[in-house]
Design brief:
Strand order of the largest sheet: 6-5-4-7-8-10-9
Structural class: alpha/beta
CATH superfamily: Vaccinia Virus protein VP39
Number of domains: 1
CATH class: Alpha Beta
Number of helices: 4
Radius of gyration: 19 Å
Order of helices and strands: EEEHEHEHEEHEEE
Helix content: 10-25%
Shape: globular
CATH architecture: 3-Layer(aba) Sandwich
Number of strands: 10
Strand content: 25-35%
Largest sheet: 7 strands, mixed
């Protein structure tokens, strides 16, 4: 093989290289919630959300995820639609907090698989579905969670059939406008923002 690449050089790889990424996946605490990887132990007083992101986005440590969880903590339990679920951290947390039913949708099959695996790992009922929220009809729910890019958040505008929406995935300098909804509350962290909206 190396003969085909005469200018290539090789070097020894340090032992344990394949696990080094774990150092970047640290647990976080958001109120009663503890979000962390399966190789860490949750405190006894926490509502533990154990998340292995696999190939999907979302460990719980990113400011947008933390902000969404802060806003979720203030919501009464009910049905939840998680749009762009990634690893499923928001959907799993919602189920852990008593929300039901919880439907998580994502356009990426890896995210759907990660969400299903994390729901099973946490012993909660979350339906994960491969779904393109840009074109398919969005299911009805009491609360939607959308930790996605600003343009994707605004593309949901006018298509949601929910009473309240938590949105994030954008900078604090961005202010999403959702047709048919009014802003209720904003949380900011490290230059990022999340917003709670209510239907008019």
């Amino acid at each position: 093989m190396l003969a085909e690449f005469p200018g290539a050089r090789t070097s020894e790889v340090d032992l344990g290289w394949e696990h080094r990424w774990r150092a970047f996946h640290q647990p976080v605490r958001i109120g009663p919630l503890w979000v962390g990887p399966p190789w860490e132990e949750a405190p006894g007083d926490a509502v533990a959300v154990v998340v292995d992101p696999g190939r999907a986005f979302g460990t719980g440590a990113h400011p947008t995820t933390r902000l969404c969880l802060e806003l979720l903590l203030g919501e009464e339990p009910g049905s939840v639609l998680d749009v762009g679920s990634g690893s499923g951290v928001l959907a799993v947390a919602a189920a852990k907090l008593g929300h039901a039913p919880v439907l998580a949708v994502d356009v990426d099959g890896s995210a759907v698989a990660a969400t299903q695996a994390n729901a099973e790992r946490n012993g909660v009922a979350v339906e994960a579905r491969l779904f393109d929220a840009r074109t398919a009809a969005l299911p009805r729910a009491q609360l939607a969670l959308a930790n996605i890019a600003l343009d994707a958040v605004e593309a949901l505008s006018g298509r949601l059939d929910v009473a309240r929406v938590v949105t994030s995935g954008y900078l604090a300098t961005d202010v999403p406008v959702l047709d048919g909804y009014r802003p209720l509350r904003r949380h900011e962290l490290d230059g990022w923002a999340a917003d709670l909206h209510a239907r008019l």
